[in-house]
Design goal:
Blueprint: E1 19-25, E2 28-34, H1 44-60, H2 80-86, H3 91-95, E3 112-116, H4 122-131, E4 136-141, H5 144-152, H6 154-161, E5 166-170, E6 186-192, H7 201-211, E7 212-225, H8 231-234, H9 237-241, E8 248-249, H10 250-260, E9 266-272, H11 278-284, E10 289-296
Parallel strand pairs: 2-5, 3-4, 3-6, 4-5, 6-7, 7-8
Antiparallel strand pairs: 1-2, 7-10, 9-10
């Protein structure tokens, strides 16, 4: 299989976001779409892959032990300073954690924080302790089953912390501007192993820029490749759901971030990833993947 040429860059998908209406279910804010056909131009392949991801994380996976690779989950990838905060998070929430490990700046007391792809809420509940009673943390995820777990344990964590400062919203991270979160309202936006699952990454970055305060920061970890991925990898359901098939070539991501209006991305950390499952290892061949932590700002 010939190695894709790095100079071929990712083209931004210009799909239009659907207009949203707020309804409520089980205490979780949920957005349902009213979609004019003339603006609904998301590709069928994108819709199919999004459904695959929702089913994988909502129905197939019951714990991190069900993952087929270690690429998108390292529950122990957390600093020593945060482990005592993790001890206060409900066991069921921790069991349903599939991220690369929480990454965030150290001093965020009083911040308003948004966690993209918050899942069952583990990182939200850690962040809630870091921002304190004067701060606020919002988690956004498109998977109903995960959000129900996060919502179920809100009172438990409020008792543990001595205050309630979290909110969970069901929605697509490609449509952040449609979720009623408020322009320029967040000091910090975080995510881990989520951007690669999106089928419209430029839309996610634009939404992040829209929601950040002028001095705000997008601080996140994600999976990247050392080259552009061939179709057989990027369209493979398991590889995509395991955070590999949707990984961007890291140079393409940096160019995409700059094109969106962010300054040169600041690389905080890089960790090479190993593919354990033999059948998947054969598919990716000589492609190398890594978890990279970036900091994006506009000033």
């Amino acid at each position: 299989m010939p190695k894709p040429k790095p100079e071929n860059r990712v083209n931004a998908d210009a799909s239009s976001a659907a207009r949203q209406t707020t309804i409520y279910s089980m205490g979780i804010k949920k957005r349902s779409s009213h979609i004019p056909m003339k603006v609904y131009n998301r590709r069928k392949s994108d819709l199919a892959m999004e459904d695959v991801v929702k089913a994988y994380y909502g129905k197939e996976l019951k714990s991190s032990a069900d993952l087929k690779t270690s690429a998108c989950c390292d529950a122990n990838a957390i600093s020593n300073s945060l482990k005592q905060l993790l001890a206060k998070v409900h066991p069921e929430v921790c069991k349903r954690y599939y991220g690369c490990g929480l990454v965030c700046p150290e001093l965020i007391e009083g911040f308003r924080v948004l966690d993209l792809g918050s899942g069952a809420g583990r990182d939200v509940y850690i962040l809630a302790q870091l921002v304190g009673s004067k701060g606020n943390v919002v988690g956004v995820d498109m998977t109903k089953e995960q959000l129900e777990i996060a919502q179920k344990h809100k009172e438990y964590h409020a008792e543990q912390f001595g205050y309630a400062n979290v909110e969970f919203i069901e929605g697509r991270i490609e449509e952040l501007t449609e979720l009623g979160l408020g322009k320029s309202s967040f000091d910090l936006i975080v995510s881990n192993c989520v951007l690669n699952l999106s089928t419209n990454k430029p839309a996610v970055l634009k939404g992040i820029k829209h929601l950040l305060k002028p001095t705000g920061t997008f601080y996140f970890a994600d999976v990247y490749s050392d080259q552009q991925l061939p179709q057989e990898i990027s369209s493979h359901p398991v590889l995509y759901s395991e955070c590999l098939g949707g990984a961007l070539y890291w140079r393409d991501f940096e160019e995409m971030a700059i094109a969106t209006g962010f300054r040169n991305p600041e690389l905080i950390n890089v960790k090479d990833l190993e593919i354990d499952a033999n059948e998947l290892k054969e598919l990716v061949a000589d492609i190398k993947f890594s978890s990279r932590t970036y900091k994006l700002t506009t000033v």
